[in-house]
Amino acid sequence: MTPNHTLLTPRLKLRMIRPEENQAFSSAIQSSPSLYPWLDWCHQKFSIEEATDFIMHTRLNWIKNNAYGFGIYHNKSNDFIGMVALTELSPSFNMGAIGYWICDHHQFKGYAKEAIVALIHFCFSELHLTRLECICDPDNLASHHVALNCGAEKEGLARNRYLFDGKPKDGVVFSFIPDSYSR
């Protein structure tokens, strides 16, 4: 998969974040405190250097076919809205995990669902994966709602499912399967 791959929806363009967009990316994180409890790399003083590193690592993951992080942009204004990503890609099990976040001032407009549905279709139709998981903090009810609204099935609580600030945390497992996914 090339880093130039783009997904389009009626309102959105999903594409790789460009290095020259590091300032906008940094500002988006700094102005989105709702992300801080759920994403351990997000914080109020997220610097341009951290943004540059993040963007570079996202690009390297694309090139290595380890993960695909898409910036979410408005089709008309080109405003940066957030991200969706396929992570934890496991070719042996033909599955991956998806993650998402939306900048605070773009939340509650349906952008998350629109972007996630596009990512899911990409994963099932172009990558031919047979399972996608979405792992959410048990207290992140907004993310639970988004996953369910996108057609996920809640499977249960997995103990020590992910790390947050280097410490294991439980995660609620949501799944998408091509045969039962029809959004």
Automatic annotation (TrEMBL):
Please identify the protein, giving its name as recorded: GNAT family N-acetyltransferase
Residue ranges of domain N-acetyltransferase in the record: 15-170
Q: Which organism is it from?
A: Vibrio rumoiensis
Task: Quote one Gene Ontology molecular function term.
Answer: acyltransferase activity
EC annotation from Swiss-Prot or TrEMBL: 2.3.-.-
What are the alphabetically sorted keywords of the record?
Acyltransferase, Transferase
Question: What highest taxon heads this organism's lineage?
Answer: Bacteria
Q: Does the keyword Acyltransferase apply?
A: yes
